[in-house]
Amino acid sequence: MIENDFLYLSKHTGVERGRIRKVCELFEAGATVPFVARYRKEATGGLDEVILIKIRDMVSNLEKLHKRRTNILESLIERGILTDELENKFNSTYSLDELEDFYLPFKQKRKTRASAAREKGLEPLAEFIIAQKNGFMDLKQFINSEKGLADEAAAIGGAMDILAEEISENADIRKGLRELFLRNGRLASKAVKAKMEEASVYRDYFDYSEAANRVPSHRALAVMRGHEQGFLSMQLRPEKEDALRLISGAVIRNRAFTYYRQLEEMIEDAYTRLLMPSMENESINQLKRKADEEAIAVFVSNLKKLLLEAPLGQKRIIAVDPGFRTGCKTVILDAQGKLIEHFVIYPEKADAAAASILDACRKYKTEAVAVGNGTAGRETEDFLRKILPAEIPVISVNESGASIYSAGEVARREFPDLDLTFRSAASIGRRLQDPLAELIKIDPKSIGVGQYQHDVEQDELKKSLDDAVMACVNSVGVELNTASIELLSYVSGLNGRLAENIIACRNANGPFKGRDALKKVKGLGPKAFEQCAGFLRIRGAVNPLDSSGVHPERYALVGTMAKDYDCTVSELMEKVSEGTRISPERYVNEQTGLPTIQDILKELAKPGRDPRPEFKAFSFSENVHSIEDLSIGMKLPGIVTNVTKFGAFIDIGVHNDGLLHISKMADRYIRDPQEVVSVNDRLTVTVTEIDRDRKRISLSLID
Question: Which H or E run contains 484?
Fold first, then answer.
């Protein structure tokens, strides 16, 4: 990277240039975003993961820009047309669109109307016309029937083709039009008449038009999906007169010129035939990128909330995957989520089912029951609540994606001899124990918290979701001696191969006694150890710091603190947790700044603290089980299952989520639903509309 790159990054992130440089150096040296955010605060000035990811992605885009610029310059050198002025021009921009605009006149093209005109010798005529100087040029010199130039009109037409192409390749005109399209363009769609019946899902867009710079992401993506499927025609353009006025202002300099009328016609041709299709495609792509960014941001926010949902913890669980016809698949899990026993119950055979459940509760000292929220979920909950003592809570668990997990590779590896439906039940129970550890085994797109997730750019979606999962895993920390391959692979500095090697080492040698033992894992070198060690916890380790978020590189500093207080590290941790105040400024040195010391003291006070909230049980209304039980005005408890840009979907226990539209969230203006609600929030909502035929329910938070 060059100095101007750091200036560019600083300008677009608001981060001081020196900080940007240090962050880039850390990333180049192999540091991860969670590691830099947590353990290199002095270098970054305490930048959070959001801005660090932005810097990382901008650096990646800069690398692509530089690569494209290099390829262009090399091409121009090979063709012998690169001048110092041209090189400076190409080096002056940080816009890929502008870079391509600069290159457009030099691009080697297939044969065009303009190139054909040039071959016929019409370039001098084109130059005369565009100069717009009063004077005379004998057009007879260009007439040549063998070249297809039968008369003066044909010569002028060919010259205008040359000028139309030149105008379409003019970087300043393209830049002005690009801004006009984005500022004044309107996204419009109409139904394809031959497909109107099958396109009914898009009826809101059969005759639709909206300012492109105000279109919400969900509407933009809906129109684009309808167009992709052939149900809608789509365009994004400003008023044609505005575009022609802009081009004319850049081209016309003499309205008294002999060929002024032909120039006006040429400008319209240049716009309609060459510029408008190009600018429209660019603008649609830009709108798509913006809509993708918004949709992905919503997905990421929902996913983080879901992954960081409160865990019930290490409790003995009975987990039930409900079913009417085939019965309820039931599994017994120990406190660590290990499968102990499995069987089927049929609630309609109440006595036998009750006996099976109660026997299991007594035998395994069950502490809670998890019930999937799918078909027959409410009925199964009611049955279990009637037969179980009050001290054993029955808890509804969102089972989205459980069937995907049960048929996947991870489930086959964990339960090779178990039927798919029992695997699903085990996943439901483990979700209750620890949502993060279980949900990361499932493709986030199968969890049901996205918005138009199949329409957005898939590589960007995957990268953002991976970042979100990685952030959640590392913020919570991972128990080294019980973590799955999937959980370990998201730890800073690790990957799937190293995760497998860690588990192989654990299986061969028994539980890790301390973090230093990680250095014996095959393929786990010094850099990987540096990046991962602070995020891995070892409960009951010989060194108490191994169960905390203190990084091993700071153990010596903690030892100095203990020595100063004439105690062991364990005793120091007890003192700090009981309120003993240690002055952080006392331990600041060249290697360790105040932010790191303050983080260390927080860890000593609450080593390995789980940042997730405390678990609170939730239950639906006992009187409502289906949409038939609803009536207008009912107030019901519900759980937010998904948040989009236009509202939130709420599970009220009737198998069909209700829509809480953004306009019904508060009696004030709400720009974004996430100002009011987030995934898994518990709400009390009012039923405002019921469409039983289409199974649609409208809800409100406004009294």
Answer: none
pTM, full prediction: 0.89
pLDDT band at 1 (very low <50, low <70, confident <90, very high): confident
Per-position DSSP letters for 206-235, written without gaps between them: TEEEEEGGG--HHHHHHHHHHHHTTSEEEE
The CATH classification number of 3-106 equals 1.10.10.650
- Residue 703: pLDDT above 80? no
Mean pLDDT of the chain: 94
For residue 176, what is the enclosing H or E element? helix 171-184
Dist CA 681 CA 301 (whole Å) = 13
Q: Is the pLDDT of residue 452 over 80?
A: no
Both tokens of 313, joined, read 């913890």
Judged by DSSP in three states, 640 sits in strand
Q: Measured between alpha carbons, how far is 520 from 522 in angstroms, rounded to an integer?
A: 6
When pLDDT is averaged across residues 403-412 and rounded to a whole number, the result is 93
Fold of the domain spanning 627-700: OB fold (Dihydrolipoamide Acetyltransferase, E2P) (2.40.50)
Each domain of the chain, given as residue ranges in start order, spans: 3-106, 113-300, 317-433, 487-605, 627-700
Bridge-based pairing of strands 536-537 and 368-372 is unpaired
Nearest Cα to 58, choosing from 113, 109, 128, 1? 1
Which spans in 514-644 are helix H?
526-532, 555-564, 569-577, 594-605
d(CA 117, CA 157): 9
What's the whole-number mean pLDDT along residues 387-403? Answer: 93
Instruction: Tell me the DSSP string of 62-108.
Output: HHHHHHHHHHHHHHHHHTT---HHHHHHHHT---HHHHHHHHGGGS-
Let me know if the fold of 3-106 is the same as that of 487-605.
no
CATH class as words, domain 113-300: mainly alpha
Distance of CA 292 to the CA centre of its chain: 9
Q: Rounded to an integer, what distance in angstroms lies between the CA atom of residue 677 and that of residue 648?
A: 8
Candidates 1.10.3110.10, 1.10.150.310, 3.40.50.150, 3.30.565.10; correct CATH number of 487-605? 1.10.150.310
Residue 652 clears pLDDT 80, i.e. is over it: yes
pLDDT of residue 448: 76
Read off the pLDDT of residues 345-380 as tens digits, 9 standing for 90 and up: 999 999 999 999 999 999 999 999 999 998 889 999
Q: Rounded to 10 degrees, what is the CA torsion of 547, 549, 553, 556?
A: -60
Longest dimension (CA), the chain: 107
Cα atoms in the 13 Å half-sphere on the side-chain side of 190: 4
Give per-residue pLDDT as tens, 188-198. Answer: 999 999 998 89
Q: How many CA atoms lie within 13 A of 309 on its CB side?
A: 27
Residue 609 pLDDT:
86
Spatial separation of the C-alpha atoms in residues 63 and 57, rounded to whole Å:
10
CATH superfamily, domain 317-433, is YqgF/RNase H-like domain (3.30.420.140)
Q: At what angle do helices 171-184 and 96-103 cross, to 10 degrees?
A: 140
What is the C-alpha separation between 381 and 397, in angstroms, rounded? Answer: 11
Structure tokens at 376: 């027959």
DSSP per residue, 287-356: HHHHHHHHHHHHHHHHHHHHHTSPP--S--EEEEE--SSS-EEEEEE-TT--EEEEEEE-TTSHHHHHHH
Q: Rounded to an integer, what distance in angstroms lies between the CA atom of residue 183 and that of residue 279?
A: 13
Given a contact cutoff of 8 angstroms between Cβ atoms, the answer to whether 131 and 100 are in contact is no
Q: List, edge to edge, every strand of the sheet that includes 232-237.
A: 207-211, 186-191, 232-237
